[in-house]
Amino acid sequence: MKDLSNRRQFITGAAALGAAAMLPSAQAHNHGEEKQQGDHGHGHHKHHKHGAVAIPKLTHTVFFWLKNPESTEDRDALIAGLKTLKDIETVRGIHIGVPASTEKRDVVDNSYQVSELLMFDDVEGQNAYQVHPIHQKFVEECSHLWRKVTVFDSIEV
């Protein structure tokens, strides 16, 4: 069981690092563009004094198993619903994905159909997300699509 826990921690951490590289402010920084200090718009992050992007400290990683795993219509409906979550003010970064065609290994679990990774500054931001009307509407409109959901929340140490 410990091995499974370590795998999950690794997967969550690796996903967070990959998502951080895709954040708009990280891309802007990599191209020499400046973002304002403390700009908390969607996908905008604080910069440290040396120009490094401050990666949000809390990741909310969710894996979805669909009731109809072969249905591209159901998958696309879930993805469309997930994309609405980017409009929640406390969401600092979002990555929505499907299993990658990577090498088959014992440590890789690609049995899910859709994943999401959301990034928050802190627990309070994630708590606000949970009760936000956009999130509530997503659950109401899309929960009939999945048979199982697994969530991994982690905070930077």
From TrEMBL:
Keywords: Signal. Residues 58-154 form the Stress-response A/B barrel domain. It holds the Pfam family TAT_signal. This is Secreted protein. It comes from the Bacteria. Residues 27-52 are annotated as: Disordered. SMART domains: Dabb. Residues 1-28 form the signal peptide. PROSITE patterns: S_R_A_B_BARREL, TAT. Residues 30-41 have a biased composition (Basic and acidic residues). Residues 42-51 have a biased composition (Basic residues).
